[in-house]
């Protein structure tokens, strides 16, 4: 009996491999979607609604959260029945950390047969973006922030395919249009979605956009959309003493102009 069961499992396994080999389009249905943005703008809340909407549409998701200190957000997705893993970058820039782990993250999601891999990252300095050309890159923006905020987000916004405006229930229609104008000044080609992450308003349109976004079969040969900033000074490797005598590597110094009087 045991031998028969073992043989049955082998037959099923061979059939699964054969179907996967014959149907190459199955692998091409995979896509990786990046959710970036400043802290506390609502990335996790929006993403929680999105994975639920996609599940209703028959698509399975996996979520990887990159953070600097806490990994508690992964429990939010696990409570929804979504495979989730967290990476803590600690002393390393979270964007550098993410890019260094893309192959492993992809393999993890691929091993779970996910249709969509979501990566939520903690963008800090606004100077760079971990988005690659094969990703569907999104930037989440707090609509209640200053109308000047989009201009300070750098490649995280300028290189995005779509932009999500959160907390739109807290501003007027006129204020929303001002924020949208500010976003368009930085990235005129991005799709913009207004979302109330507490009630789920606007998430359906965002989910449909992600569902129809281009799929990729592999991360191999992928490249960053924007170069990362240099991170090889003495403070990057643990130096704590302040002063020019302790500064080595790539060091940037200010130039002070004389006061105009």
Automatic annotation (TrEMBL):
Alphabetical GO biological process terms: protein maturation
Name under which the protein is recorded: Cobalamin biosynthesis protein P47K
GO molecular function, one term: nickel cation binding
UniProt xrefs under PANTHER family: COBW_HYPB_UREG NUCLEOTIDE-BINDING DOMAIN-CONTAINING PROTEIN, HYDROGENASE PROTEIN ASSEMBLY PROTEIN, NICKEL CHAPERONE
Xref: InterPro entries: CobW/HypB/UreG_nucleotide-bd, Hyd_mat_HypB, P-loop_NTPase
Limits of the CobW/HypB/UreG nucleotide-binding domain: 33-193
A Pfam short name: cobW
Highest rank taxon of the organism: Bacteria
